[in-house]
Amino acid sequence: MKRFSLIVLGICLGVILTLAVLWRGFAGGARAQLGEATPLAPGVTSDEGAAQSGFPAFSGDESTPLEPNSLQAAAVLPTPIPGNSTVYFVPTDNDATATVLYLYNTEPVSQTVPLRGFSYNGVLVYSLNITLKPTSFLRLASDSIASAPPPSWATPAPIITNFTDFTYFASLSLPKGVKAEGYTLFNPGTGVVDPRKDQGAVPLRFSTDPATLFLPTAPNSP
């Protein structure tokens, strides 16, 4: 009888140990899956590939244009403005490139053009409202302009739009009568756009749907 009790006790201990091992393995797998689905605190990757913890202060192409808290907002695209045409484009603004935009107001009244920049998941990281005078032309540049620029660049002076590395794509909300054009250029190491030099301009492609900016086909511009 005593031997039978010991056998039963041994079986019970074996079952308990087996269940403990299985539970430990299950919990470890669950933690591993949770770790893959929930990334660590975000870091900022520079153009050279070095990771910087947190969000640095705004200075240069590798810093966010907005406050860190604003980057935690829900992923959204701009709300359409009645009467305006929303177009999307992909700017480039890092240590070796810059983006130049042209806006032309053909209407006899002042108009406002909202310019927005978004991160890879659609979070707003850049916001600027641009006022265009009646029948006027305005240039925007993502880097500083060289001193003593040509007359066509001097008046009116370009507005600096520092997209930085955080902007994956951007949008313009164009009121009726406002025309837009732009290009990207090679700007190695200087952070200054020199209109008197050939910096290898590549025309921007505008689209009414942000997804089409990343497809292999090239739809017609609006």
Overview of this structure, please?
By secondary structure, the protein is α+β, with helices and mostly antiparallel strands. 18% of the residues lie in helices and 29% in strands. It contains two helices and 13 strands; from the N terminus they run H-E-E-E-E-E-E-E-E-H-E-E-E-E-E. The protein is elongated and about 105 Å long. It starts with a helix and ends in a 19-residue tail after the last strand. Mean pLDDT is 75; it is low at 26-59 and 67-74.
Topology, number of strands: 13
Radius of gyration: 27 Å
Percentage of residues in strands: 25-35%
Order of helices and strands: HEEEEEEEEHEEEEE
Order of the strands making up the biggest sheet: 9-7-4-11-13
User: Distance N terminus to C terminus?
Assistant: 91 Å
Provide the low-confidence segments as ranges.
Answer: 26-59, 67-74
Averaging pLDDT over every residue, what do you get?
Answer: 75
Q: Give the biggest beta sheet.
A: 5 strands, mixed
Tertiary shape: elongated
Class derived from helix and strand content? alpha+beta
Instruction: Bin the helical content.
Output: 10-25%
